[in-house]
């Protein structure tokens, strides 16, 4: 079975991060042998586990300080590899999130950075939503945006943006 970084990340998110929010921010816990062994028993290869942990480390290093949201800034122009990885639906979704204050420009760039770091070619909208959820989960002061995004992903009838 071909596992990907995103598969490992989703497994971690579903089994660990929702119960222990600090785990994603604590690099030492991520590198613990118990977690590595658990992921191995779940069927993930050591290479994919290491890539996923590196992905999470990069996310934690890039976490900006909480800042006021800046809505209505310049439009993001996508180029080459971003256009290849993110289709029109994905790019439109990011624009929607930014226009409605769910993501600010810095968070959008962090989502793009983490999406580009995945080994999926191209990324579909559901995968991008998971990346957005993981980024918001790791952002100080983004609890409301995270809760809204979680509702969009897991509810039969998503709630509107206010």
Description:
Helices cover 60% and strands 0% of the residues. With 162 residues, it is mainly alpha-helical. It folds into 2 domains: 1-61; 69-162. The longest helix is centred in the N-terminal third of the chain and has 16 residues, at 46-61. The model has no long low-confidence stretch (mean pLDDT 81).
The biggest beta sheet, please?
A: none
Shape: globular
Q: What is the tally of beta strands?
A: 0
Unreliable sequence segments = none
Number of domains: 2
How big a fraction of the residues is strand? under 5%
Fraction of residues in helices?
Answer: 55-70%
The number of helical segments is 9
Task: Write down the Rg.
Answer: 16 Å
- Gap between N and C termini: 42 Å
Q: How would you spell out the order of helices and strands? A: HHHHHHHHH
| Chain-averaged pLDDT | 81
Q: Tell me the structural class.
A: mainly alpha
């Amino acid at each position: 079975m071909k596992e990907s970084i995103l598969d490992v990340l989703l497994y971690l998110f579903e089994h660990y991060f929702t119960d222990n929010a600090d785990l994603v921010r604590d690099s030492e816990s991520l590198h613990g042998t118990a977690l590595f062994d658990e992921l191995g028993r779940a069927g993930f290869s050591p290479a994919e586990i290491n890539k996923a942990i590196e992905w999470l480390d990069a996310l934690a290093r890039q976490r900006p300080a909480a800042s006021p949201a800046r809505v209505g800034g310049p439009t993001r122009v996508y180029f080459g590899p971003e256009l290849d990885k993110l289709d029109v639906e994905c790019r439109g979704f990011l624009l929607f999130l930014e226009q409605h204050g769910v993501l600010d420009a810095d968070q959008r760039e962090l989502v793009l950075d983490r999406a580009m770091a995945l080994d999926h070619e191209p990324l579909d909208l559901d995968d991008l939503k998971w990346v957005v959820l993981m980024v918001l989960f790791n952002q100080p002061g983004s609890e409301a945006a995270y809760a809204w995004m979680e509702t969009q992903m897991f509810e039969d009838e998503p709630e509107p943006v206010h």
